[in-house]
Design goal:
- With 304 residues, the chain is of the alpha/beta class.
- It contains nine helices and twelve strands.
- The chain has two domains: 105 residues, NAD(P)-binding Rossmann-like Domain (Rossmann fold, 3-Layer(aba) Sandwich); 174 residues, 3-Layer(aba) Sandwich (Rossmann fold), CATH 3.40.50.
- 30% of the residues lie in helices and 16% in strands.
- The strands form two sheets. A seven-stranded parallel beta sheet has the order 8-7-6-9-10-11-12.
- Helix 1 crosses helix 9 and helix 3 packs across helix 5.
- The chain is elongated, with a radius of gyration of 21 Å.
- The two termini are 27 Å apart.
- The structure holds NADPH dihydro-nicotinamide-adenine-dinucleotide phosphate.
- The site of NADPH dihydro-nicotinamide-adenine-dinucleotide phosphate (NDP) has 28 residues, from helix 5.
- It comes from Gemmobacter aquatilis.
Length: 304
């Protein structure tokens, strides 16, 4: 029974050292396994096309990132479980990113950066946080962490999810229209699934109050980029901070690169820390070997 790591070799070396210390009897290979039939656990970003034939005894596939949308879940053998990355640095970094982006849009930073470049000194009016209604799409690990980080600022907070949720100090919605109608600053932290692909589209922007702002740190394919540009041009959306795009990076001449009301970051909201990532995988394998529930095991039908 072995573990195979198929992602960045330098990070793989960190995983290998952690496995040697915590599970010394479990062989851990980086890059390739001497006996593919012995591979029971695979740690990777992408799944090889011939996964089932190459690793016939595979039991769990671990994503090295927080999402699992890079896998074609329908194409994986039905008996293989898929586990997302859960490590404490991910929600912590997302709290930092969402706070940075929310405050940047709340305090009109894109406009002031433009003014600075143009040599213009002109103060706008600060809106009190109590008058900026923030709404988070996705109330999972990251949505809840983001809301907790934003709470001290005094924004009226809301969230939207599939299941009804109760979170102290947060108005929780399952009705998307009602959620959007009260949201001046929208934060997308949804997983990419068949249901959420393209969800940030013209119809959605039209249902926000005029002049709403967008923070997008979910996945690029959730955003209709042309619809966002139209909404920015019409003033329906006043500004956006985007950490994810499709493709990544955008083509060199894409208008979002230089848009005066858009701040673009290169998918850096969160980066898995290999030491903590290894601890998550080790704990999950220990749980699996003990016949206990595996933290981060996703529902393959639901897609997250
Ligand atoms: P979780 O699985 O913990 O939470 C997902 C949330 O989204 C749940 O609240 C779920 O609803 C909700 N949701 C899913 N589908 C729908 C839908 N169709 N309609 C309404 N709500 C829906 O995921 P995480 O919070 O850990 O991560 C979310 C995503 O963030 C990741 O999948 C990844 O794509 C992205 N991400 C981006 C990073 C970056 O660097 N930019 C870094 C890390 C993650 P319910 O509660 O009802 O199940």
């Amino acid at each position: 029974m072995t573990v195979l790591y198929l992602s960045d070799p330098a990070r793989g070396a960190v995983f290998q050292a952690a496995f040697a210390a915590a599970l010394p009897d479990m062989p851990f290979h980086v890059g390739q396994a001497p006996d593919p039939k012995a591979v029971r656990y695979l740690v990777t970003w992408t799944a090889p096309d011939d996964l089932a034939a190459r690793f016939p005894n595979l039991r769990l596939i671990f994503s090295v990132g927080a999402g699992v949308d890079q896998f074609d879940l329908a194409a994986l053998p039905p008996h293989v479980g898929v586990v997302r990355m859960l490590e404490p640095g991910i929600p912590q970094q997302m709290q930092e990113y969402v706070t940075l982006a929310t405050l940047a849009l709340h305090r009109d930073l894109p406009a002031y950066l433009g003014q600075q470049r143009a040599g213009v000194w002109q103060a706008g009016k600060n809106l009190p946080a109590e008058e900026r209604r923030v709404g988070v799409m996705g109330l999972g690990q990251l949505g809840q962490a983001a809301l907790a980080a934003l709470r001290p600022f005094g924004f009226p907070l809301a969230g939207w999810s599939r299941k009804a949720r109760q979170i102290e100090g947060v108005a929780c919605f399952t009705d998307l229209d009602a959620f959007l109608a009260r949201t001046d600053l929208l934060i997308c932290l949804l997983p990419l699934t068949a249901e959420t692909e393209g969800i940030l589209n013209a119809g959605l922007f039209a249902r926000l109050p005029r002049g709403a702002r967008l923070v997008h740190a979910g996945r690029g394919r959730q955003l209709d980029h042309a619809a966002l540009l139209d909404a920015l041009d019409s003033g329906q959306v006043a500004g956006a901070v985007l950490d994810v795009t499709a493709p990544e990076p955008l083509p060199a001449n894409h208008p979002l690169w230089a848009h005066p009301r858009v701040i673009l970051t290169p998918h850096i909201a969160c980066q898995t820390r290999p030491g903590d990532g290894a601890r998550h995988v080790i704990a999950a394998i220990r749980a699996d070997l003990a016949g206990q529930p595996v933290a981060g095991l996703i529902d393959r039908i639901r897609g997250y």
